[in-house]
Specification:
CATH architecture of the largest domain: 2-Layer Sandwich
Number of strands: 13
Shape: globular
Strand order of the largest sheet: 10-9-8-13-11-12
Structural class: alpha/beta
Radius of gyration: 19 Å
Largest sheet: 6 strands, mixed
Helix content: 40-55%
CATH topology of the largest domain: Hypothetical Protein Tm841, Chain: A,domain 3
CATH class of the largest domain: Alpha Beta
Low-confidence stretches: 173-177
């Protein structure tokens, strides 16, 4: 029996390198970033770094927008000519409607699609895609791959520490009173992406305590699970990201680390200077 030809589909929240995308022929649909009502295709018209620099230096509205369903319709119309089916892994459906648009477009084009709501984004999403490609290479069929990746979702971790509450306040995530109190007492909320949504996991007084909290979460997971790699995510704050990476390297010299820019769909709410850690438990 001939092996099914599988297309891989994702979106720009996946934090994949251009080299990896090209090597594995991954079809990436861009989300849009919106600056003062002007639309830019993420990673095509504007990089994450450029977006954060503009957010830091310009007044106005900074938002994100999901891809048009037509982008997916066009893609699936082409893919069905050359592929038997597709596996699509998208950012959490609670954070963006991209997953829903992808599924709907595949139905409109009668393209056989195995769709996964990753319930996350950034590094964990890239991990799921890489793991899926490995599983296909090992000979698993599309449904078996999807089952394994769905089981992995509960083992992903993504923690974010906003540098301040300005952007969370603008996006309606915190009230004005909370913002003032946090500024007065230097309180830093720690956000976690869990079950597809952003939740305030804890609140600490200083950045130093926030970093210690992040490392402690990793320590707790390592007591019972295997973690091979940790991503230090940041919203255009290379210096602080290097400090956090150094802490992880000193505490866990056997674990590989990588610094990566925080996806704008998260950064538009958490703001410039956000820092965080992400990993997947195996």
């Amino acid at each position: 029996m001939n092996k099914a030809k599988i297309a891989w589909i994702t979106d720009t929240t996946a934090s994949l390198s251009k080299e990896f995308i090209e090597k594995h022929h991954i079809h990436v649909i861009p989300l849009h970033v919106v600056i003062n009502d002007e639309f830019y295709k993420e990673t095509i018209d504007i990089t994450e770094q450029e977006f954060y620099e503009r957010m830091k230096n310009e007044e106005g509205k900074f938002q994100t927008s999901q891809p048009s369903i037509n982008d997916f319709v066009e893609l699936y119309n082409k893919l069905k000519e050359n592929y038997d089916c597709g596996i699509a892994i998208h950012a959490s459906s609670l954070l963006t409607g991209t997953y829903q648009s992808s599924v709907m477009a595949a139905g409109m084009e009668d393209f056989k699609l195995f769709a996964i709501d990753s319930q996350t984004g950034s590094y964990p999403l890239s991990y799921l895609i890489k793991k899926g490609i490995d599983l296909v290479d090992q000979g698993l069929d599309a449904q078996e791959v999807v089952n394994q990746l769905n089981a992995l979702r509960d083992h992903t971790r993504l923690y974010l520490v906003p540098s301040n509450l300005d952007q969370l306040h603008k996006s309606g995530r915190v009230s004005g009173g909370q913002k003032i109190l946090a500024s007065l007492f230097n309180i830093k909320p720690i956000l976690s992406i869990e079950d597809g949504a952003a939740k305030i996991k804890d609140k600490v007084r200083t950045e130093k305590k926030a970093f210690a909290w992040l490392v402690n979460q990793l320590t707790e997971d390592l007591a019972t699970k295997t973690v091979r790699k940790v991503a230090v995510v940041h919203a255009n704050h290379f210096e602080k990201a290097a400090q956090l990476e150094k802490m992880v390297n000193e505490s866990f010299p056997h674990i590989e680390t990588e610094k990566m820019m925080l996806i704008t769909v998260a950064g538009v709410h958490t703001g410039v200077g956000t820092l965080g850690l992400s990993w997947v438990c195996e």
